[in-house]
Amino acid sequence: MDQEITQGFGRLKNDIARAIEDLATLSVTTYTGNLTMKADKILKRTKSGNKITGFNTKALIESLSDGANANMDFKLVGFTYLDVDSDAVVFVKENLTPEQQTLMEAHRSMVAASQEARMAFLKFIKELA
Amino acid sequence: MQSLFGLEAYLPEGQLEVLDQGRESEAKQALIELGYLSPNLNSSQQTFTDDLLDGIRQFRKDYLRARLIPTGFRTEIREIQRIEGPGQFSEFELQLLLRLTDLEGSFQLPTQYNIGDQSLFTRVLHYRLDVLGLYTQAIGQAFNSETQKAISQLKQWLKLTHPQQVFQLLGDVPKLTQYILSQPEYKDRIVYFRHHNPRHQKLFSFEHAPEFRREFRRRLKQQLDRQSTTFKDFKKFAFRNEKKMDFDFLQEQVEQDSNRLLLRLLQVHQWMRGHYRGLLDNEMGDVTFESLLEFHRTEVEAGNVDLQAGHFMMHLAQGYWVLNIHYLFEDILSPEFFEKFDTEDFYHQFNSLMENHSVQAKHNIQRNMNEVWQAVNDEARQELSSKKNLIRRIYQGAKSLFRTLGRMIKNVFRWLAQKVKQTLNILKNMVKVLFREIREAIRMFGRGLGFLFGKRMVYTPHPNGNQGVITDFDFDFDATLIVPEHSSPHLLRKHVENCQSYVKAMEFSMLFTAKVIKWVITSSSPIGWTRFAFHLVKVFKNFIFGELLRTRKPFWI
């Protein structure tokens, strides 16, 4: 039993090492769209359907990839790509409406949050090393 | 907003976490203490459940009104109620309840009240006065003339000039006791009480243990000023043979307010340390008396081998007893008790000592801990184990208990391994608190693993039930933000705040998790579950302590 704990954590460390594939770049993508019909697919509900109990991640990811084709009415509003050398690519939809400009502010905040999260992840790895 | 003194750790995740199963009894107990729930279990299960729901609703209303939680979290509280049902507690709520009912100085009350004020704070004030036996009205009542009377009484007894000083001392029983004992009129006090139990009387009789009588007097001489009225009266009216004893004097002493206050304080200390699990009632009944004997036994186990119960209490005659309260409190409130051990020391020592045991001994300790834990759970389920159909009142603070255990940590293993019955009360409390803290650390560890390998999705619901905003972070924190059309700026702001909170909580949990993983994988020997659990708590506590030092927030565990 004692061996199992130690070995289990050893495997955990290897999993983390394998999973870190691309820490050199960071991308943030912002979409807006009408999700009315699709939301039901991504939310888990109780049997009666009255209460939301969580998310169906798989369905969401599938919906997102479908959305790129035809099924979802998504518009790309902003895309930010940063690499380790601080090179950056920023895409912003042209002719933003005032409402979409608010979206861009949220997008910028999300870039900051992702950078902070990335930093936390790097600290985690440093601590493990 | 009122300072939460570290409870912020339960808030930053953007969504309050639902309480683990099996911990509701802890919350119920605290709700009873604060008068949100009746302790009377005569009512039917249905009525009790309805009362519980009403109590929880009122508690939520009160802490929101007291501004003990940021306004933004009101939505999360409503969300928990909507999804889980109104009777579901959150981790934050349990921690808040435990903080509010703590009597060791971890929650400072506001110091201004007027007649008619009714709030969470007046409940805490009434609870503290009730514990000391100074307030007998309903805890949930508004600040009233009885409250004022109790505060004035205490102010007068303690010779304080402002009621505010009373409020400060009320929440810290050890400090309050030290303050009381240092007052001139309490400096030479001894406590008289009545206790009719032939077995106990025989145990402490002159015939059975003549040396107790001499030793009691000798120690009393050391403690008190020999010229004091107390000592002279003791010699003149009490320390006589039965025929010459003045029973009117003894009865008068028993009924004195100051005598009752000191006896109550002693009972409260016994309760806080885990020796006493009965009602707080100013009476020296069998349970209180046995708790003193247990205290004595555990002190001797801790190495205080010279201490004899007969040195601090003596049966006079006809059920009248005398207690050398200064001598007893000197031991209870000794600086070593407060300074030598802290919670971190306890876990550190627990780990080191555990390492030195054989595999078989470790197995026995673990098995017996589980059995004690089972007994604690059975007790919580029965709940009817106390007299008068009242739920057993157990102090849920951890500091005093850990100090008590810290003093006798080497014996704790022996008690556990050999299942020493006389120490069952203290072991039950220990296991309850240990398991509570282990679960806390495991929860934080699990949260860290969840951030690493779980869903990394932040969802902010629309207040009207329409679609909310979603951010999905992938493994290396690339983010996808999906915003429904025509979302309000307010909803977006809220979502950004949620994401920021998520990231902050993640940083905290992942660093903690990394420390634990590193310890396990670099350990030179295999690690068992017990060792893992205790190390988890130790790292958790050190980590929280470090974080709070860094952010200059007060330490809360």
TrEMBL record, chain A:
Per its UniProt entry, which superkingdom is the organism in?
Bacteria
Q: What protein name applies here?
A: Uncharacterized protein
Originating organism:
Rapidithrix thailandica
Automatic annotation (TrEMBL), chain B:
What is the protein name given in its UniProt record? Answer: Peptidoglycan binding-like domain-containing protein
